[in-house]
Structures are given as C-alpha cells and as structure tokens.
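[User] At your convenience, examine this fold.
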Amino acid sequence: MTVEHQMVERPFHLITKPIGAICNLNCTYCFYLSKEHLYPNTEDFRMSDEVLEAYVKGYMQQPADEITFTWQGGEPTLMGIDYYRKALEYQQKHKPEGKTIHNSIQTNGVKIDREWAEFLSKHEFLVGVSLDGPDHLHNTYRRTKGDRDTHQRVMQGIKHLKKAGVDYNILCCVNRVNARHPLEVYEFLHEQSGTPYWQFIPIVENNPHESEGVSPYSVTAEQYGNFLTQMFDRWVRRDLGRVSIQMFDVTLRRYLGMRAGLCLFEETCGDALAIEHNGDVYSCDHYVDPDHHLGNVMEQPLQEMVNAPFQREFGRYKRDGLPDYCKQCEVYELCRGGCPKNRFIKTPGGEEGFNYLCEGFKHYFTYTAPYFRFIADQYRRHTPLPAMMEYIRSNPDQFIDEWPARNDPCYCGSGMKFKKCCLS
C-alpha cells in the first residue's frame, strides 16, 4: 500500500492555536501558557494570512465529508473578529465540492460582547466556554494577569452568547479545589450556565518535585472518581436525557457497542494534532514540544505529517505502551488506559506507565456499570428516558448492593451523610 493511498484513507483533526500560548488571563493550572517559550525570538504570535490560507487549504483536503475547524489558544478571541472573517473566506475559497464545514472556538469568555456573540451566531460557531463553577470556586485559579477575579466577566459573556442564540457548551476544569464540591458545581451549572452541554476535564500536572508527584492544584485520582460518581448520581436520577455530560455520553456509547468518539478512551490515538501560530504541527495538544514536532504546513502537506511513521507510532503507543496490569483490568475495555500524558506512576507491581487517574476511573466505571447496562438495554427497547429515570429512582436495590441508612456515609464516596448527599 502506497503512502498516497494511506493518506487518502486517514481523516484527522487539528486543534488550531492562531495566537499560540498568548492569553489575557493567567490561570494557575494552564498547561499551555509555558509554550510561549518554544518561540523565544517571536514578538508577534499572530498567525499570518499566508499560514492561515495554507492551513485551511491543506486541512480541507483530507478524506472526510465534514471538516471542523477548532480554534483554541491561549485565548483565540485575541485575534479579533476580522481574523475569523478571513478564515471563513479561505474556507469558502478552498472548500471541496460536497463537503460541510463547521467551526468551533474555545474561549475563556472574558472578551465576548454583543459584537462577538452576533458574529459567532451568524456564522454558526459552536462555542466552548471555560467555567469552573460558582464564583468562589471558579475564581480560585482562573485569574487575570493582575490577579483579579474573572467569574463575573465570564458570566456576562455567557449572557451575550445566550441572547444572540449561539450554540455553546461549558468546559469545567476539575481541580484540587472544585473537585471537593461536585454537587455545588452541578447545581450551579444546572441553574446558571444556560446550557445543558457540559464537559469535565481533570487537571493533572506531573511534578516530581512535589511530595505527591503532581502540582498542588492537580485533582487527585480519588477526588476525580468521587466527583464523577456524585455527579452521575444526580444526573441519572434527575437529568437523564436533559443534560449532556461528555463523560457519561461517551460511556453509554461504549455500552451500546459504539466507538467512544473521544481519544481519551479509544484504543489508539494520533489523529488529533495541534497546529501553532507559525504553522508548526505537533503530535497532540498535550505534546507541543520539540520531541513531537512533525513539520510545518508551509513546507509539507498535512496528510504527510499525519501519516509519518513517528506519528503512527505515537498513536499506537497508547495501546502498546500499557502495562499488563491495565490490560487485565475489568474496566480496560471502557478506560483503555486513559490519556498517555497522565501515565507517569507505577502499577502496584512496579510496572512503569500507569495512569495517575486510574483509581478514579476504576471507581467511576465500576460504580456506574449496573446503571449503564440497564440504560443501554432499555435504549435498545426504545424505552422513554423519563421511564428509565423513574425505574432507577424506584428500584435502588437493583443498582446499589447495600443501601445506606440516612445517617450513614453516602455510597458515592463523598464523605457526606447519605441524607445530605444522594438521598436529597
């Protein structure tokens, strides 16, 4: 099989960094701010029109009927609206016949005003807004460069998006602080976010110089597992079919025999890359470093970089680099070892390459298994979602082996009394 034939067969996705790591905020846990140091002699981090056009043209030549441009940063709104107007022009100029184009943008929300919201609505951008919960939780780590709160400004941006009819979702970073308050985060998003589409991304930064081996703001594995199960208990009894939480949607897809649709839980990866402001292409958003630099869009075709032997090996490592301990785990088919960037601890038997979040994933997948088996079965029977929820509420013994007394610790692992937690 020739390289050209392989390229025809491989769709891929690029996360675009049109302004590199430049941002108007200084969030404590942001892993990307330091990427500015990759370009020490650069003063202007803006993606030029020449690079933009080459990227757009090359990206749309891949073998996919639908092409999604994903704009991130740093903070991509710092590029200004005119930059995205130019991007839309190039998309139309180079659009292959029969293909559908989508645009999405991930923003901290601070610069979203009426003009931005109307532009995003008119051109049907899907917007992701970073929001870590109510103000006292969000403001802990999401700060301005002058160390000021950002929550109020983000909520104002969300109001503009909602008023303009923009499709948007919430990306909540689960860190050492807000992970202690899952139900408070849940209720806030339910009542105040204005959207039923949520993602929860664990903050994990490997730091061997710290006593725990991670940064002080990183969520612990136990915290993350408890965070997910407490959220799940609220969701499955009250909001099944009403609120879309990425983690739960992906898990259900696996129980229905479908692909996860999220690289985190796929067997291999390597088809979701990142492109920097100057056209440099890297193996992954989490691997923007000299060791994973694949080339530049101004010098070689994107398909060639995607299909490079190094990149294919990078993608296979997600499967081939797993410890045997993982492959023998009862939740392996769901977890697939998680993201390789978090595989920096050892298994109980001393094998390298074990995922830092394993304990949390295992708790979540084990706890939710009887629920998802039931939901998947009923889904195939075309049972209405409200009927599923009512059955789950009315038949707790089918899903919980030991139902606690009102004053006992809650089964979800929160540490709270049952009556104050999942019974409420």
Observations:
- Confidence is low (pLDDT under 50) at residues 1-8.
- The chain has 15 helices and ten strands.
- Strands lie at 13-16, 66-71, 100-107, 126-130, 167-174, 197-202, 244-245, 272-275, 280-282, 293-296.
